[in-house]
Amino acid sequence: AVAPTVASAADLPTINWRLASSFPKNLDTIYGAAETLANRVKELTDGKFNIRPYAAPEIVQFNAVMDAVKDGTVEMGHTASYYYYGKDATFAFDCAVPFGMNSRQQTAWMLQGNGMKLMREFFAEYNIVNFLGGNSGTQMGGWFRKEIKSVEDMKGLKFRVGGFAGKVLQKLGTIPVQLAGGEIYTSLEKGAIDAAEWIGPYDDEKLGFNKVAKFYHYPGWWEGGAQLSFYVSKKEWDKLPKLYQAAIETATFEAHVQMQAKYDAKNPSALARLLQDKTILKPFPQSVMEACFNAAQETFSEEASKNAKFKKVYDDWLVFRNNQGQWFNVAEQQFAKFNFGRKLK
Amino acid sequence: AVAPTVASAADLPTINWRLASSFPKNLDTIYGAAETLANRVKELTDGKFNIRPYAAPEIVQFNAVMDAVKDGTVEMGHTASYYYYGKDATFAFDCAVPFGMNSRQQTAWMLQGNGMKLMREFFAEYNIVNFLGGNSGTQMGGWFRKEIKSVEDMKGLKFRVGGFAGKVLQKLGTIPVQLAGGEIYTSLEKGAIDAAEWIGPYDDEKLGFNKVAKFYHYPGWWEGGAQLSFYVSKKEWDKLPKLYQAAIETATFEAHVQMQAKYDAKNPSALARLLQDKTILKPFPQSVMEACFNAAQETFSEEASKNAKFKKVYDDWLVFRNNQGQWFNVAEQQFAKFNFGRKLK
What we know:
Two copies of one chain form a homodimer.
Chain A: E1 15-21, H1 28-44, E2 49-54, H2 65-70, E3 76-79, H3 103-112, H4 115-124, E4 128-135, E5 142-144, E6 158-160, H5 163-170, E7 175-177, H6 181-190, E8 195-196, H7 201-207, E9 215-218, E10 227-233, H8 234-239, H9 242-275, E11 280-283, H10 286-306, H11 308-328, H12 331-339
Parallel strand pairs in A: 1-2, 1-3, 6-7, 6-8, 9-11
Antiparallel strand pairs in A: 3-10, 4-10, 5-8, 5-9
Helix pairs in contact in A: 1-9, 3-4, 4-11, 5-10, 7-9, 10-11
């Protein structure tokens, strides 16, 4: 569809939209992206295009944002596409895939590889136009009541973890459990679950997990860089004047940068505080990482063999992802290895 | 000054600006940021606000962009602030400082730390409002005719390298040389210089340095994440309608994201091609890195003791930079270390 053109800026219509966020306001870093976008779009349209964000679950449950946009309940959403992994594993490429890419690599694939093109094709079937909407960076592996020392320790572990990672971990005998954020603390405390992953230090600290499960394992190999996304109803998008389309599109970049910056600014001090309060920081053992990597590879192969949409995106994503490592291991990694451990004075 | 408000969008004026870029068009990744910005601003203002980018040295020499904006020769510029290190070392904090931050950390300091606030204060004295304008990521250490094996090898080395790094390297007896990009190849070939740093694989490949200096050392510890910047004449900025100010500001974020994404998408294949064509990739020896780190620390202390502006920014930047390492060494680094070296199939 072709967007209507306006003869002059004076013709710009007043438009009010609702944006359903998958996130509560206390996740200020993620939720804030919707506000960043809405404020900027308003400014860019002389106050005429108002997008009002609603925190979850005010008008839509956190994992129902995709359906709400698809069905036209709301014009816009802000969410993590891997919440819809259960509907189609292909959604995960718009967010994070186990042993996939980090934040910069994911953005590069989306914008300068074929990622955005492929995901737009995929989302079109859901009446959705997708945009970048932030990234958390590499997340933590989560909070464990007992230290994970071997692959054996993963067997029978009741672990609150999301869709794609859960599928991979089942191959190691782990029992993935689905729980809303608000239920995790009590379940961990009572021992109803043995472990739970959430996001990273800044968000995890608010929920107090360190009080009830002191082993903080890393990395969250299932989300090396979890991208958030804005969804716009395609039907509503096509009705917008070009200037309003441009306002939304450019504002998504601003929200994208600001979210990652906020996480990067806030996580370090949160981690330092957690370490002063019972938290024992431990990498996953190499053997566990290897076993998970192999299990992920099996899961990808199985999914690709039965889901042509998944395979189409995976084939492109795979080449891009495999091509990144050599270069990122050079300047970027060598600088990081030398520099992060050294303080200037 | 307060920006004029417009009664309605119909009042929006037609404005034509010139933007002087410090970069030639063949550096499409960096130069492209000015085009990204100009195109978006035009769209956002219904074609009324036209910013025309000029590649260097069409109207302004690459290292004269700051003066051109300050003096009102052009309304806008796109440049690397460390080009003006010779005028005041404080400029470097807006771009890259030896053993400073990587791309994400620099952005985080600017947007969610005190970086933008402090640099705006500093730039105000130059009649400039500064904005983010991209990042290259960690650059390479450069091309060397002979392999660097020890600190001793740095002594007497004629090295084409920029201001701040040159100052640091002088403490090791290195002789920094200033040369424009177009002069490097011939100087290296003739042995007039022993080494030269430029940017990274994608840009370096175009200049063919691998034909005349096969040792490609890394990392470029003097630019762990070199930020580019847009400059706007403060006088011109204050005259803009608020909507035009918003259009510029938001478009700078888009240009910022797109440049890093383009580098990240294009560097890997360029590195692979260079490695198939004579290039020998070598990290700087640990002893050299340590010596450079110590020399950088000395340089910072000397500069801070004689330049109050530098000290003011350094004191804030230092706390932020030192606070980043612990967290970045956890999830992000552990994921990188495991993941970058492993291919999925």
